[in-house]
């Protein structure tokens, strides 16, 4: 912080610091969840939810600290790419684990995919009950 910092600079620096700390804690929580959670489904949740929010906070902190308008579109594109790819990849890993019986089905509250997988295995067309 420069000696001639205004009140706005102090507020921006404080918000940036809070975003960086909270974003880092969210990313740390995601990493710990990947290591400590017992099953694949819990690990996928830890890998996607807090990590995407943590990245958003980190990118917002970078944008606030840079104090230029041209950096925001780049940061927004990076966050949108992460927002779109992390849940989709977790979904595909989850479906693959379900089909290969790597998930703990006894830990599921409701198994909505079982009927779909059985119909697909039997060669029947999927039904649209909704």
TrEMBL record:
It holds the Pfam family PhaG_MnhG_YufB. The chain crosses the membrane at residues 14-35, 47-64, 70-93. Keywords: Membrane, Transmembrane, Transmembrane helix. InterPro entries: PhaG_MnhG_YufB. Belongs to the CPA3 antiporters (TC 2.A.63) subunit G family. This is Multicomponent Na+:H+ antiporter subunit G. The lineage of its organism: Bacteria, Bacillati, Actinomycetota, Actinomycetes, Micrococcales.
